[in-house]
Amino acid sequence: MKVIITKDYESMSEKAYEEVRAVIAENPAAVLGLATGTTPLGLYRRMADDCGRGGISYKKIRTVNLDEYAGLGADSDQSYVYFMRKNLFDHLDILPENTFIANGKAEDLEAECARYNALLEGMRQDIQVLGIGSNGHIAFNEPGTPFSSTVHVVDLAESTIRDNARLFAREEDVPRKAITMGLKNIMRAKKILILANGANKARAVCGLVKGEVTEAVPASVLQLHPDCTLICDRDAAAMI
Ligand code: GLP
Q1: For the chain, what percent of residues have pLDDT higher than 90?
Q2: Which of 10, 93, 103, 185 lies deepest, with the highest CB count within 10 Å?
Q3: How confident is the model over 62-90, as pLDDT tens digits?
Q4: Ligand 1 touching residue 139 (CB < 6 A)
Q5: Any idea which fold 2-233 has?
Q6: How far is the CA of 131 from the centre of ligand 1 (A)?
Q7: CA–CA separation, 202 vs 198, rounded Å?
Q8: Tens digit of pLDDT for each residue in 104-127?
Q9: How far, in Å, CA of 225 to CA of 213, rounded?
Q10: If you average pLDDT over residues 142-171, what whole number do you get?
Q11: Whose CA is nearest to atom 5 of ligand 1?
């Protein structure tokens, strides 16, 4: 794994943007795997700003998102589909029909997992952007998820519910289930870019980079990927 340590969040985001821009420059019809959370917001702002200034075009780009809360859809401002539109897609010249995310409001969640999995099989990510949970999760693959997992419904860990509660009015409002890409779907990406900032990620980053490769720390599977880059700030790198 290539590791880049930056002085702060803004330089982490700038480096991440350089990586994404290079992928699109090489293939203007690339498939971008995207993540939610606060970590990639600086990257998304740079993508939006550059496209708005007439820079990179996303007209031929397709995107696939990692995950979505069960029960939430575009009409909820806590959903990941809403997050992606507000923070990125609405500011790009991307075609809405080229942005894919699991439907958290599907009546049959298992059928939705099968549908999304089939879609991913036909759309290998040229680059997959990831954040990391403080317990070492990637997407919503909580500790103990098999490395062989594909798209599935997950019961969120208590620590994830607590971490994500800051984005909801009350902790009780955080959905207890989500649909997530599995670790196998993530590992299929040609290139992986994982971002981390802040001291609360230091332990997870340590497990990601130098811990044992174990299903107890889902991010550790990335040590097995042939083209994975971690970009993190000094605080998140404190234990590596
Ligand atoms: C959620 C998302 C993950 C994300 C994580 C960290 O659990 N499902 O994809 O990496 O939060 O979020 P943040 O970037 O806000 O710390």
Answers
A1: 99
A2: 185
A3: 999 999 999 999 999 999 999 999 999 99
A4: yes
A5: Rossmann fold (3.40.50)
A6: 6
A7: 7
A8: 999 999 999 999 999 999 999 999
A9: 12
A10: 94
A11: 133
